[in-house]
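F.,

This is the one I mentioned.
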């Protein structure tokens, strides 16, 4: 007797729901095989996947009582019903296998099974056949309805198989990325360490030469010292971030005035701003020293990097304001400019090491994409957080908060520019 429609729909719905809830692939596919056999009123079912290396079909899932006997057996495409279905990408019903040469009889003797009739449908993903789902020995004749049921179950099975394989690929890629990241960090640590010693010698000897040669080759020797010092700065920046990321950095904290720090940094960039006709000013909350226990040198580097960037990315005639205030239990420092701004897509990534908005090939400005990652490391080492708000073409605002009780906090995500 034909199975009730309601029961079929119920089982198919259950299998669909389970696709996203059952974590274990083996359990899920076994449930698909049971549903396939039960809903088509067949004796048993099996699932085969195409194996690229042998170019044959291999049993991926079979009922447990056949597993030992046939799970390692491969099915040739040209001598089996499953192979025919795979190659033609069409369902196939064989009512009497004895009168159809497409049935691969060897399997029957291996599994000690007597196949009388079968229905097989292809497992198709993105239009490509990847395997075959088969049911065997229906009590009556296989009908169109059985094909629809089996095709629905086949599409659930192939989705589960593909999800599983994507998950495995993703895990492998994540592992690879972690590995590459570790190698990159090691490379940076070793290279910067190895470069430091010869560079120190170049600077030392060049300084000595300048004294020896007096005015004669001053221009050339100065150029050597300038370039070598610039290189040293780059290496220092590289190892600073590395040191912070590996947890090797230490803070020399003492009571400092953030108001004073802002004034000092602003004064240090006064000439550079004047040369560019950019107005650079500090706005500090009046009557507030903004005292905090912190490493003044490191905070000065962080703030200098922000001001240096603001000057770099603000065209002539622009304005930069450095602000300091108390906000709840933190000290807030911000550097705001009306320069070129940062595209929304880049905003979340500018604090990454080596990240630059312009491509390094077409880049007009110098730098290695390290300034912000150094600033971030230094602020976070104080238990603070740093973020940027920006609108392309309108300007940027970089803000950092330093907690007065110095408790480490999670870094904040980048936000759009608040006008
Ligand atoms: P770099 O030293 O190469 O400039 P940073 O880490 O300091 O590297 O900055 C990363 C990138 O963020 C810069 O290359 C620039 O594209 C962008 N950026 C930083 N500050 C600003 C700013 N004030 N205005 C516009 N873009 C900025």
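My design for it:
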């Amino acid at each position: 007797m034909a199975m009730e429609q309601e029961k079929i729909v119920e089982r198919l719905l259950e299998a669909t729901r389970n696709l996203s809830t059952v974590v274990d692939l083996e359990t899920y596919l076994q449930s698909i095989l049971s549903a396939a056999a039960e809903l088509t009123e067949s004796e048993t079912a099996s699932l085969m996947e195409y194996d690229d290396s042998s170019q044959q079909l291999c049993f991926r899932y079979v009922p447990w009582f056949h597993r030992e006997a046939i799970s390692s057996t491969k099915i040739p495409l040209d001598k089996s019903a499953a192979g025919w279905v795979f190659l033609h990408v069409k369902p196939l019903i064989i009512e009497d296998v004895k009168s159809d040469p497409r049935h691969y009889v060897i399997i029957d003797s291996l599994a000690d099974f007597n196949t009388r009739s079968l229905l097989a449908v292809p497992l198709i993903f993105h239009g490509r056949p990847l395997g075959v789902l088969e049911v065997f020995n229906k009590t009556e004749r296989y009908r169109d309805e059985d094909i629809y049921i089996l095709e629905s179950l086949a599409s659930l099975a192939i989705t589960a198989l593909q999800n599983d394989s994507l998950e495995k690929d993703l895990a492998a890629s994540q592992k690879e990325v972690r590995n590459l990241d570790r190698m990159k960090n090691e490379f940076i640590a070793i290279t910067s360490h190895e470069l430091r010693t010869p560079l120190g010698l170049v600077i030392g000897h060049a300084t000595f030469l300048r004294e020896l040669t007096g005015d004669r080759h001053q221009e050339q020797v100065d150029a050597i010292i300038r370039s070598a010092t610039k290189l040293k700065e780059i290496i220092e920046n590289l190892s600073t971030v590395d040191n912070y990321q590996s947890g090797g950095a230490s803070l020399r904290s003492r009571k400092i005035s953030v108001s004073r720090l802002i004034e000092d940094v602003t004064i240090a960039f006064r000439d550079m701003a004047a040369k560019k006709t950019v107005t650079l000013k500090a706005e500090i909350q009046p009557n507030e020293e903004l005292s905090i226990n912190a490493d003044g040198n490191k905070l000065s580097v962080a703030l200098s990097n922000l001001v240096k960037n603001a000057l770099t990315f603000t065209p002539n005639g622009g304005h930069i304001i450095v602000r300091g205030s108390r906000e709840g239990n933190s000290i807030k420092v911000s550097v705001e400019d009306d320069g070129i701004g940062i595209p929304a897509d880049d905003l979340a990534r500018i604090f990454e090491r080596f990240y630059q908005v312009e491509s390094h090939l077409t880049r007009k400005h110098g730098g290695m994409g390290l300034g912000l990652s150094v600033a971030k490391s230094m602020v976070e080492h104080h238990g603070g957080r740093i973020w940027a708000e920006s609108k392309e073409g309108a300007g940027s605002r970089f803000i950092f908060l330093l907690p007065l009780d110095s408790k480490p906090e999670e870094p904040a995500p980048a936000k759009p520019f608040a006008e």
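The chain has three domains: 2-171, 183-246, 254-403.

Talk soon.
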